[in-house]
Amino acid sequence: MSDAASRLRRLAAFFSKGLLFLATALSLVAVLLIILYIARDAIPFFKLRGLKELFASASWFPSGHPPEFGALAIFIGSGLVTLGAIVVAVPLGVAAAIALSDILPYRLRQAVKPVIEILAALPSVAYGFFALVIFAPLLQNRGGSLLALAAWLIALPLGLLLIFVITEIVTRRVREDVAQAARLILAATLVVILVRGLLALSSLLGRVAISSGTNALNVSIILGIMALPTIVSVAEDSLQAAGRELREGSYALGATRAETLFKVVIPAAGSGIIAAVILGVMRAIGETMVVWMASGNAAQIPSPWFNFLSPVRTLTATIAGDMGEADQVLGSERYHVLFALALCLLLTSFIANLASEWILRRQQRRLGGLK
Amino acid sequence: MKIASIFLTLALLAGGFGFAADANKIVVDGSTTVGPIAKAFAEFYMKQNPGVNITVSESGSGNGAKSLVNKSCQVASMSRLLKLNEYEAAVHSEILPVAHVVALDGIAMIVHPGNPVSKLTMAQVKDIYLGKIKNWNQIGGPNTAIVIISRDTNSGTYETFEGKVMKGEKIAKNCEYVGSNGAIRQRVQSTPAALGYVGIGFLDNTVKALPIDGVNPTPETVKNGSYPIARPLYMVTDDYPKMGSHLYRYINLYLTVKGQAIIEEIGFIPVTSY
Amino acid sequence: MELQARKLFDRSLTGVSIMAILLMSLSLLVLLGPIFSRGAGAFVFRATNEFRRLNLEQFNRGDAQAIAEETRAVSEARKPVYEMLSAFEAELADMDASRRRELRPQLKEIKNLLRELLGSLPGEIEAVMLRQQYGQTRWDRARYKLGQILFREQWDYSDKRSMGKKVLTPRRQDFAGTRLEPLFTYLERNLKQLLRPRLTFYWRFLTDRSLDSHFFGGIWPEILGTFYLTLGAMLLAIPFGIIAAIYLSEFASSGRVTSLLRVCISTLAGVPSIVFGLFGLAFFINTLHLSRSKSVLAGSATLALLILPTIIRASEEALKAVPHTYKEAALSLGASPLRMVLTVLLPAALPGILTGIIISMGRAAGETAPIIFTAAVSVGQPLKLWETLSQPTPALPWNIYNLATEHQAVDEIRHVQFGMVLTLVLLVLLLNLAAILIRARVSKKMRG
Q1: DSSP classification of residue C168
Q2: Using CB atoms and an 8 Å cut-off, which of residues 302-331 of chain C contact chain B?
Q3: Domain map of chain A by residue range?
Q4: Which of C249, C279, C374, C411 to mutate to test the interface with A (most CBs of A within 10 A)?
Q5: Which value does ipTM take for this structure?
Q6: What is the pTM of this model?
C-alpha cells in the first residue's frame, strides 16, 4: 500500500473513532448539562435563604406572606414512603429471588419471569391510577378489614411454624412413648392461644378508621410493588453469580438447601443483594406519578413519625405540582427552591447509583476469583 | 453531501410549515376552573373552523400567567387577576396583559353529602383551615377528625380562597393538597370527613355545598354580590387580539349567545347583566 | 440442630419463598384485573340509540335509515314520559303552596336527570354542548341514572355519633296521587324501549377523536400523540445509543475516560424522571428555544435522554454476546475494525439490540413526568407530521392523569379513563411480548 493511502486509511480510522467517541460523549454532556442547569438555578435559593431553613424547618408555605421554605416534612415524607416501600419489597423480593435461583424448577422459573417483566414494564401512571381510583377507596372504606386480613395472612403461618418449633424443642428430653401425646397437647394449647390472640388483634385492627385513603400506606405498598422487579432481578443475578460449585460443595458436606442458602450463598452474594436494595430505593425515591396522585400531598411530619395512615408529601410530588414555576422570567425564591429540591434528589440518586455500582463491581471481582 | 441537502430542505420545509401555521394555532394555558370553559370553547370553535388547532392545558392560573409572559401561550385562562410582580414581569417582557372577563364564579365550600353539618360561617371556615377547629363535633357534626383539602399553590382558586377567607394567614400543616377542582370534588365525595372548596361549575349532586353566613352559592347570589367568596373568571391575552383573527373570535365567544349557553351549561355564570 | 428441625427450616424456607412468588403474581393479578375488565368496558358495552344517533350525526357513521327508524320508535316510546311531565306541570300550578314548594325542586331534579338520560326535552332550546344534546350512550350508565330517578337519596343524620347514612326513598311515594306518579313505573318497565340497548364492539374508540371533553368519542389524538413522542424519542436516541455501545464495546480503551463515560451513563440511568422533565423545560424550551411553547420535539428530546442509557446498555450486552470467533474471522480476512463492526458485528447483535429498543419504546410511551411541561396538553387536534415540531399534543399517560383528577365530570367518564389505561398497558405489554419473542428466537439460535 502506498504511503499516502495508508496515511489516509489511518486518518479515516482516527476520524471514525473520534466520531464514535463524540457520540458516546453525548451522555457525558447530558449529565453535565443536567447537573449544571439544576445546580445553577438551585444555588440562588441557598444564597437567598441559606442552608438551614430548607433542611431544618418543617413549615412549607411557599406562597405565604412571608413565604417559608422549610422542606423537612417533605424530606421525611419521601423517606417514609421509601422506607415503607423497602419494608414491603425487600422481604418479598429476596424470598422471590431465592425461589427463582434455587428452588423453582426450570419450567416454573420461565413461567414466573414474565410476571416480573410485566410488573417492571407497567407505566407508572397506570400504578398511580390504580392507587388513586381502586386502592384509595378500598383503604378508606375497608381499610380496617384489610389490615386485619393482612395480619392474619402474615401472622398465622409464622405463628404455626413457631409453635411447631417450640413443641419440638420442649419435648426433646421427654421419653419417646409419651413424647407424641405431649407434643399434641402442647401444640393444641399454643394454637388456641395464637388464634385467640389473632382474633383480638384483628378486631382491634378492624376498628381502625382510615380517614383518608390517599396516605403513606397506600403509596408505600404500590411503590413496593414497583420496586419489586428491580430487587428480584438484581438479587437473583447475584445469587446465580455465586455459582454452582459453591452450592455443591456445601451440599457435599451435608447441608440442607436452606442452610446452604443462608450460610454460604447469601453471604457470598450479600453485597449484590445490598446493591439490589439500593436500586430499589432509587426506584422508590424517584417515582413521581404514584405519589402525586395518591399520597395526599400534606407537608407535615406524621405524628408519631411512623404513622403511615397520615398523608405525606414527597420531593417528587412537590416538584411536579409546582413545576410550572420553573420559568426564569418570574424567577423568585419559589422558582429556585424547586431546583434546590431537584438538586437534592439528583445528588441522592447519584450517590446511591455510585454505591450500588461499586458494590456490584466488588462482588464481581470477589466471586470471579472463586471461579 | 446529498443527504445533508435533503435534510436541510426537509428542515426548511418543516420550519416553513410551522411558521405559516402560526396564525392557525392558539395555545391556551392556565386555570383548572376556567379549563372546562376554555375546552368547550376550543371544541366549539375548532368544529366551525377545522383548520385551526387550539390546545388547552390546565396547569393552574399561576402557570398560565407565566406562560403568557414567557410568550409560550396566547391565552392565559386565570381565575384571578395577575399579581403585581406578574404585571412587572409582563411589562419587562413587553407584554401588555388584557384581561377579558368571560364568566363569574363563586367558590363553594363542599362536604360529603353524609355530613350532617348544614351551614358554616366565614369565621368557622377560617378556623378549620387554620387548624383551630379540628373535629366535626366542634361545629355540630359527629366525632370525626376533619380532613381539610386545599388546592396547590399555583392555583387561582387557592389564591382567591387565601385572600378572601384566610386573609393571608397560613393553612394548617395537615392539609392535603390536590391539583385541580375536579380532584377536590373527587376527594370530598369519597371521604365522609372531608371539607374542600371548588368553583360552582364543579358542583353536582355527589357533594353538598354549604351556605356561608347564610348565603347559598348559586348564580343569583354570586351575581348580586351577596355570596362572600365570588370572583370573575378571566382569559388574558397580550394586547387586544387583532380583530377578525382566530384569536379574536375565540376570545369573544363569551359574548355570543351560544358561548353564554355553553358557560351556563357548564355551571358558571355568564356576564349578561347584574 | 436436630435433623428434624433442620428439615423443617428447609421446608419452611421453600414455603416462604414460594409464597413470595405467589404474592407477587397475586399483586399483578389485582393490578391488571380491574384495568382489563373495566377497560374492556370502554370497547365492549351495550350501546343505546343515543350512541348510534351520535355516531351518525357527528361521525357520519351507520345505517342512516335504520337509525332514523329506530329513533322514530324510541320517540314514540318516550312520548308518554313527556306527556306526563307537562300534565304534572299544569297540575303543579293548581296545587297548594306548601305541596308545590315541596315538589318543585324535585321536579327540577327529575327533569335534569331525564335530560341526562334521554337528551333534551321536547320544546326546549337545543343545547350547545354535546353532552346536553344527547342522552346516555351506555346502557350501564343509563341504568345508573334510572336508579337516581327512581330513588331519592336522603341522608339519615339521626345517629349523632357517626356520619349520616344513605337512605333511598322511592320518589313514587313523594308524587303519590299526582299525574307524575305513573312515570316511575313506566320508566322502570320500558327503559329498554326508550333506549334500545344493543351489545356493541366500539373498536373505533381507538380512532375517533374525543367530543366534548371526552364525554363522547374516542382517544385517537392521545394515541397519535403517544406514537409521535415515542417515535421522536427513538429517532433521537437510537443512533447515539448504538454508536455509543459500539464505541464502548469495541474501541474504547479501559482507561479513566472510559470509566468516566460509563459512570455518566449509569448516572443518567438513575436520574428521576421528574428531574428530566424539569431539565427539559429549562433547557430545551427556555434556553435552546426548540419551540415557542410545549411541543412534541421538546418532549421527544427529553424522552430520548431518558431512554438513552437503556439502549446503550442493551446494545452493549448484545454486542458483547456475539461470539468473538465472528469478529476474529472478519478481522483475519483483512476487514478494518469499523468495517467488521458494520458488516459482521451489528447484524449478529441486531436481535439483542432490537430487544433493547423495543423495551425502551415501551418505557418512552408510558412515561408521564418528562412530558408534563414539555409536550402534553389536555385538548388538541391530532397533529399532522410537520406540526409536531412546534405544537404540543395530548398523550395517553398525561391524559390518564388529567381525566382521573382534573376533569369536570370524573365519574361520567370512568370508562374512558379505564379504556385509556387499558390501551396504554396493552401497548406496553405488546411491545414487551415482541421483545421476549425476539429474545427467545435468538437464544434458540445461539443454543441450537
Answers
A1: E
A2: none
A3: 76-314
A4: C279
A5: 0.91
A6: 0.90
